[in-house]
Design a protein that fits this description.
By secondary structure, this protein is mainly α. It has 5 helices and 5 strands. The longest helix is centred in the last third of the chain and has 44 residues, at 165-208. The chain is elongated, with a radius of gyration of 24 Å.
């Protein structure tokens, strides 16, 4: 019995996972520090939230801002929107990096919005069918919502994972591909900026050397 309970808990933890980021309202972040913020967290309010149209925050950082900003989580994707800072005299390589990061954010938001809505709908359908099979209604005599135990829900979680296994696999492959490209571009930008700094210092030192 202990083994069955452990399996049920593991399946439950694995199935309802959503990607989200930390912090409360729009928060100042150092450039290129966002990759460590990703965690997995299960959503419990999607059933009602998906009926509402999420409003985008009107917040905009000052034009003089030198950092990226991160805002409150979207109620459907559970991801926090990011406003990437545009460096002064942004190079073509830096523009390419910023656009790829923004495109990846949008792609990630779209995937998890669809996935979470699908998960929530299928979960509600499963619970309803299981209760109906027992001759029970969704709510008891006192109006409280009925629920299934962890072992009963583990059947749904496993089925959902099995059904979406290929989709999750494709998502992970694309996620790694995008992150590898972003990391590679970040390294190029860093090296280019380092070389520019060294060159400018060398030129300044050369120009400041007195001539005889």
């Amino acid at each position: 019995m202990a083994a069955k309970t452990t399996t049920a808990a593991a399946a439950a933890a694995a199935a309802g996972c959503l990607t989200r980021r930390l912090f409360g309202s729009f928060t100042l972040l150092s450039p290129h520090s966002l990759s460590a913020l990703n965690i997995r967290q299960c959503s419990s309010k999607l059933a009602t939230q998906q009926k509402k149209t999420p409003k985008r925050s009107a917040f905009r950082p000052a034009a003089s801002s030198t950092h990226d900003w991160i805002g409150p989580p979207n109620p459907l994707s559970n991801l926090r929107p990011i406003l990437y800072h545009v460096p002064e005299n942004e190079s073509e390589l830096e523009t390419r990096l910023r656009h790829l990061r923004q495109e990846t954010e949008d792609w990630n938001h779209d995937f998890w919005t669809k996935q979470n809505i699908s998960f929530s709908k299928e979960k509600e359908t499963f619970i309803f069918s299981q209760l109906k099979g027992k001759g029970l209604t969704v709510r008891d005599e006192e109006g409280r919502r009925r629920s299934l135990n962890s072992e009963e829900m583990a059947v749904f979680y496993k089925r959902f994972l099995d059904t979406n296994r290929e989709r999750h696999s494709d998502y992970n492959k694309e996620w790694y591909r995008r992150n590898f490209t972003i990391t590679f571009l970040m390294a190029r930008v860093t090296l280019k900026n380092m070389w520019r700094t060294v060159t400018e210092r060398h030129n300044n030192k050369k120009n400041s050397t007195p001539t005889t």
